[in-house]
Every structure is written in C-alpha cells, then in structure tokens.
Amino acid sequence: MTQYVKDRTVLLAGATGLVGGNILQLLLNDPGVSCIHALSRRPLKISHPKLQVLVVDFTSLPPLPDADEAYLALGTTIKVAGSKPAFRAVDFEANMAVARAALSAGVKRVGMVSAAGASARSAVFYNQVKGELEDALKAQPFAALVIARPGLLLGSRRELGQPLRVGERLASPLAKLLSPLLPGAYKPVEALAVARCLVNTLPQAEGIVVLNSEQLGRAEKKA
Predict the structure, then answer these.
(1) How many other β-carbons are positioned within 10 Å of the β-carbon of residue 60?
(2) What is the per-residue pLDDT for 175?
(3) Which helix (H) or strand (E) holds 111?
(4) pLDDT for 23
(5) What is the DSSP string of 32-74?
(6) Closest Cα partner for 12 from 160, 135, 136, 195?
(7) Rounded CA gap, 120 and 209, in Å?
(8) Do residues 120 and 130 lie in contact, with contact meaning Cβ atoms separated by under 8 Å?
(9) Which pTM does this prediction carry?
C-alpha cells in the first residue's frame, strides 16, 4: 500500500505514450499529487483541475515550474523517427533535457521508462541508447532514480489514439504464450503495471532502484 506524500508537484514528459498515458491517469487519481505539469509537443486531449499542460520544444526548454518528482516516458522507434539520429534525439536528448531542467526546478526524484537489455555497451542500437540514458541520469545528483526496464509492453495504443506498431501487434500473442519460458527480465508486461510500479515506488525511493520486467509484473499482482 502506498503511503501518500501530500501535496506533491510532478513533472511528466511523455504523457501521450503507452506508459506515460497510464502514469498520467494514476497521478490524476493520486490524492497525494496536487499538480501535474505535463510537457508535450502538442496540446493533450484531456483536462483536469490538477493538470497543467506545457507545450514545449524539447530542444529548447524554458525554465520549468518547481516540482518534487519527474517522470521520463518520452520514447519512439527508429521507424517512426526516421533515422538513428532522430531516434536518439527523442529517447536520449529530449529525456536528458527534461532531467536537467527538472533538476534546476528542484526535483529530487526521477522515474524513467527504459527497456530490458538496456546497456551502453549493447550491440543493439535501441538498447544502447536506453543504456546511455540510464548512465547519464545516474550521474545526476538526484536523491532517487527509479528505472523501469520492461520487456515487451502490452496495452492498447488505440485507446490513446496512437498508431499500432506492427511488431508489437504480431509479437504480443506469441510473447504471452511463451512468457513462462522467457527469462524474468524479458517477460512481457502490461504498460499499466509499469506505470503503477513507478508511481508507487518513486515517492519513497532513495538511491538508484532498477526494476526488471518480472518485478514490474509481480508488483502489479500485489497491487
């Protein structure tokens, strides 16, 4: 059971994404959160008394409002981005820009969405960029950094108005079938489980906490 820290102000980058959209809904329903500043490239199709949408250019962020926590859920694919540099501009550079701006805004705790197999030494470009982001965030003087490393994300992008990713659509049924045989760190996990685990863990976290896919799913079952 989460022990609510009252009147927290939160920054959220990536509220239109699969995990970020769930993070937003959970924060809106959290009685311990008084204000959410959602950073987005475009207006959101949602309004709420606690929600302030900041339409920003992630390559040139303005000073951000004072806040206690920040969630980094910005992400794309190389196919959608169009090239490796464009992918890196979102998954690394934009997330780091928010992290640095959040630090200047007084944020002490950060939660981020990474990926199974993330490592700066990975031969897989996607995992390499995720690993580089993790390392860069670990070097920042945050009191707490919670890293979620999900395997294949399960959830409905259609409900969020997102285009379906062919790879995910084809892989999801197979991944569910083979899940008992997959290593814990690579098990498929619901996006809601990832979001809930981040939101429940971050307020009381200290130091660096890394949660793999199996841990994320296990925490959801206990919720």
Answers:
(1) 7
(2) 52
(3) strand 109-113
(4) 97
(5) TEEEEEEEESS--S---TTEEEEE--TTSPPPPPP-SEEEE--
(6) 195
(7) 18
(8) no
(9) 0.87
Closest to 146 in 3D by CA, of 93, 82, 99: 99
Mean pLDDT, range 104-129, rounded to an integer:
97
Would you tell me the crossing angle of helices 213-222 and 191-201 to the nearest 10 degrees? 80
Structure tokens at 32: 């311990």
Nearest to 21 by CA among 157, 120, 112: 157
Give me the pLDDT at residue 176, please.
53
Q: What is the DSSP letter of 203?
A: G
Q: What domains, with CATH codes, occur in the chain?
A: 8-222 (3.40.50.720)
Q: Say how many Å lie between the first and final Cα of the chain, rounded.
A: 7
Confidence of residue 169 (pLDDT cuts 50, 70, 90): low
Specify whether the backbone of 207 is left (phi greater than 0), alpha (psi in -120 to 50) or beta. left
Output the six-digit token pair for 162.
């997102």
Radius of gyration from C-alpha coordinates of the chain: 16
- The answer to whether the beta carbons of residues 124 and 112 sit under 8 Å apart is no
Asked whether 105 and 63 are in contact (CB, 8 A), the reply is yes
The predicted pLDDT at position 1 comes to: 38
Using CA atoms of 188, 119, 39, 145 in order, give the dihedral in degrees to the nearest 10: 90
Tell me whether residue 169 is exposed, middle or buried, using C-beta atoms within 10 angstroms of its C-beta: 0 to 12, 13 to 18, 19 or more: exposed
Which pair of tokens denotes residue 74? Answer: 């910005």
Greatest alpha-carbon span in the chain:
47
